[in-house]
Design a protein that fits this description.
Elements lengths: L1 H18 L10 E2 L10 E2 L2 E6 L1 H9 L2 H10 L5 E12 L5 E12 L14 E7 L19 H9 L6 E5 L17 H18 L10 E10 L1 H16 L5 E5 L5 H9 L7 H16 L9 H4 L12 H6 L9 E2 L15 H9 L14 H8 L2 E2 L12 H13 L21 H9 L12 E4 L9 H10 L10 E4 L10 H27 L4 H37 L3
Parallel strand pairs: 6-7, 6-8, 8-9, 10-11, 12-13
Antiparallel strand pairs: 1-2, 3-4, 4-5, 5-7
Helix pairs in contact: 1-2, 1-3, 2-3, 5-6, 7-14, 11-13, 16-17
Amino acid sequence: MRNAMNLCIAVLAAALIAACSDNSSNNTGSTDSSGARGSLMQNPPVRVASLTAADFTAELNASPSGQQLLQVTGPASCGVDFHYIQYGTVGGAGEGTSASGALMVPTGTGLTDKGVPCGGPQPILLYAHGTATDRGTNLADITNPNNVEGVLIAATFAAHGYIVIAPNYAGYDSSPLPYHPFLNAVQQSSEMIDALTAGRKALGNIFAAGTTDNHKLFITGYSEGGYVAMATHKAMQTAGLPVTASGPMSGPYALEAFGDAVFLGDVNIGSTIFTPLIATSYQRAYGVPTADLFEAAYATGIDTLFPNTTPLATLFANGRFPQTFLFNSTAPVMADIPGTTPGPVTTALLALFPTITPPLAVPPITAGQAAIFALGFGPTLTNPQTNLVKNSYRAGYLADVLTNPDGAVPGLGTNGLLAATPAHPLRIAFKLNDMRTWVPATAPVLLCGGHQDPTVFYANTQVMQAFWGPQLPVQLPLTVIDVDPVPNPPVGPLQNGFATAVNATSTAAFNTAFNADIAAGFTVPDATAAATAAAQSAVVQNYHGTLVPPFCAAAVRGFFANF
C-alpha cells in the first residue's frame, strides 16, 4: 500500500504544483528570529501548494491506488492550502533549537464533517508522524513522492475540515539539532505544543484568512507519533491546557514493558533502527551510557546514523547497521552476566537464555510470531559480529529485568505496573518515558491499532487499556479499536476494508513471486510454496507501515466527529 500511495502522490504532484501559482498570502508579513519557544519564524508562512476539493478528489480518482485511498477517506469536502512553518523549540537536553512542519488549512465553500463551511472557523488537529530515517522529512512538501504520511493526513483530516498542524520534529528538515530526541516524552510533547503555538499565530494572516481556530483541539499520531500524541495529551492536561479529545495510534506507550519484551527475545521488525535512535536520544538527554551497547563493527558513528540523508539500503550495503540482526543466536554465558558469582538471578538467566535466543514457539508465542522474532537473531558468534547489540549488554539488561520486573511482562508480573526500582540505565530511561504514569482525566481517548503488528506490538494498547480501566472517570470511557479482524470475521467497514487491503497485498506478492518462479523453471508446487511464503512476508513487512495507518486514521476521524 505504501507503493500504491507513492503512485498516488506522483499523480498529485503535477496538479499541486500547477494549482499553486504563487507562494504569497494577503500581507507582507513579519519574521521572528528570537528562537523563543513557539515563535513563528515567518508569518505568514510560505504556501507550498493549494488544491480545491474537486481537484483533490479528481486527482486521487485518476489512479487505482488513489481510488483505494478515497474508499477509506471519502471524497474531499474541502480544498487544502499547504503551508511550511518554522518555529522555535527545544532539544532533548533542553537546548534551544528550531524545527519545521506543515500547516494544512481547509478552504472552499463545501461542508465539513460537522456540516459547516470549510472556509470558516475549524478545529485544530495536532498530528505527530511515525518514525522516519530520512533527515530531510518534511510533511509540508506534499509533492514529494516519499511523503506518504503527509498525503494521508491531508486526505483524511484537512480535506474534511481540520486545520492540521504537523511538526517534522527536531533533528529533521531545517532543524539544526544534530540528533532526534526519539521517544523523549518531555521534549516531544513540548515541541508539539511549540508547533501548535506557532501554527496558531499564522491563522488569519495566510491566504485563507477566513479559516480560523474554533478552539477545539484534537491530538493524534501514528507509531512514534502515537506515543508522542499520548505524551502531548498528558503534558497539556498537566499544564491545564484544553484538549477536546485524542486518538493515539499504534504507539509504544508501555515503553518499559515493550523494551523488556524485545530484550527477552520478542524482537520487533525495525529494531535495528529504533535501537540507535533510542540510545542516542537517551544518551543526549540523560547521559545513558552507550559505550558497551553496540558491537565494534557498528559502534563508530552510530550516534549520527539516524536520521540520515543517505538511503537505508545504502547504509545497510555499506555495513553501517544490520538489517534485522539485533541480537546474536548464541545465548549469553556466565561471563556475560554482571557479577558472575552464581546466585538466583544468574541461575535463572542461564536457564532462560536458551529458550529466548531466539524464543521458542511456546504459548503465548505462536509459530508465526517465533519465526518473526527469529529474524532478529544473527548467526552464531562470528568475527566481526553481525548482530548490533552485544551479548553482555543484553545479559546485563535482563539481569535487571529479573531483579526488578515490570508487572506487565508475561511470566514476570501480573499487576501491570512499572518496575519499582529499575537499576539498569536504559530501563531507568524507559520507565521515565513510559505512559503508565498518567491517566486521562479531562478529555476522551481512542486507541487504535492492529493486533498482529510485528513492529509496535498491540500489547502496548492492551497494557494501557488494562492500566487505565479502573482509574478512568466514568464520563471518559476509553474507546479501543482493533482494525484487524483475523481470525474473526470482519465486524464493520474498517475491518472489512483492512481485510481487503491485506488480501490485495498478499495476492499481489503471491502472483509476482509465482510468475517469476515459473518463468525461472520452478515446478508448480515449488513455485506455489515459495509464492505463499512471499505473500506472508509482504503482509508482515507492510502491516505496521502501510496497512494499518489509513484505517486507524479513519477510525480516529470518526471518533473526533463526536465532539
